């Protein structure tokens, strides 16, 4: 038996370990690049931010779970951005001869509002998921809340405790009023490259545009997948006998199957459910509706890495042992989504035509060797026996059709006549005919129906002429009040999008009679619904981001420069996905939205520095060069800490897509911030070399 509480505790423990690893990585990077004192100072600010975020989570009733802890790890690199900018400004001004107190006040007054605006933009980038009304939005809402709490708290600490710690604990810097603090080889190397790019600005942008086109072409080769499989050490065995099979036969088969599973050394426990699935013990589990021909076995293994091999062996052997059954071996998923991953939904009126259309779609699926678990949700027709009631004879005896149906149900299925309470358990009391009287259809005429007029029981054969047999559909599903049958399958390996791209043209070529329609559901519909729920609010928050940036700079050109960089980030994203082989899913979309906030935040800090230096009277061309060089370390450090802080999430199957998206996009985005933004600034403001 597997205990959900143990699995949750193990998952939380794993995430806490990843969180500690990420914190240690970020602090080590800060100590190496910013110096031991500065690194420890910002590490202390990072820890205070984390502790404050945990308090905020407690106040907002956000539990420790996969999404909230993953959000905290995702935010780590961003949490030190503000502190890096403030600490860097204080250090540079102190080295230039300014007193520590004056340098602190000057830096905070200069950067507080730009940093607040940049932080607000970063939070807005995640806001769309927090306000999505889709099930995916509900699933990921805590990610937005944790990001918002931690980022705003990081800004508060950056302009309060960070300056205080700098004044109290940083060692006194060597002052030189005339020396340039940016004379190191790295600074000079970057300055020379920037001068070349500014000199050949048009050529640089053309090269960048070509790179963007190549990235868009490369993105077409990236596989698509809504959510990945779960890494829990359990999988499901869904067992279906032909519709109408007695539940006792299904129970007997499941007993044999369960005995077979216990022979595998890798399997530690099984739990069997007959007639329906278990209770929803995890958010992404969708219980099956009650059905006598259905059963499910939850299988627990020693290690989740063994599941694929076990499923492969069972998928090969079980059809020979249970030839009359359809057996589906299914791993848990880490996100919303139910049923088959690929579903073709046919809607219309005539049952036979819908059956024919579904059979055609299932035949197309069966032709592809990568399609497995092929079925439809109406299942098989069932042979029924219908006594033909003689209306005149029934009326003379005062017998109605509902009374006949009630008698037949009591004789064969049983009728609940009471409830027996055993402690806290309620057991239904059923009355039905003895076993030998209900095992054969030949005994159907012997069923008696009570006549209220005569006060006696009347054999069914007295009020019926014959028994007619007919194949009927016991399950008829409807969607929007229209009869709907859904043919579905799963991919043997790879993503559902890859298999769908092969099946879709063939299934859509099936001729549909007038009044009939085909729709795609499964992962395809889930993806559309999730994206619609997400992007429904994206325009609102995107405009809020634009207005925030416009308010910061009181100008449109700076805003245009910043937002022109966002599409170019796809170069790094595409490269990261292609190199790692990760599919592009919903978490990658969310990662891209978060990435846009990070890029905007870095760009805001750089452009604000350029504008400040120009306002101080410096030549525009020199201001661009000096500002870019002065922001080399803060921007690079912000990117490096975020990228390295994401490394632990590469081990998590749910967050790996988002991690790759942010790591690839932010790595290239740093180049955008340090090279492309100065080029665009010079181009938009018509700045040419004067020195």
Q: What percentage of residues falls in helices of 4 or more residues? A: 55-70%
What portion of the residues fall into strands of 2 or more residues?
5-15%
Integer average pLDDT: 86
Number of strands: 15
- The end-to-end distance, rounded to whole angstroms, is 76 Å
**Model regions low in confidence, pLDDT < 50 over at least 5 residues:** none
Based on secondary structure, the structural category is: alpha+beta
CATH superfamily of the largest domain: Multidrug efflux transporter AcrB transmembrane domain
Which outline best applies? elongated
Could you say what the CATH architecture of the largest domain is?
Up-down Bundle
Tally of individual domains: 3
Radius of gyration: 34 Å
Q: Tell me about the biggest sheet?
A: 5 strands, antiparallel
The CATH class of the largest domain is identified as Mainly Alpha
CATH topology grouping of the largest domain: Multidrug efflux transporter AcrB transmembrane fold
Report the total helices: 23
GO cellular component, one term: plasma membrane
Organism: Desulfosarcina ovata subsp. ovata
Protein name: Multidrug transporter AcrB
Keywords: Membrane, Transmembrane, Transmembrane helix
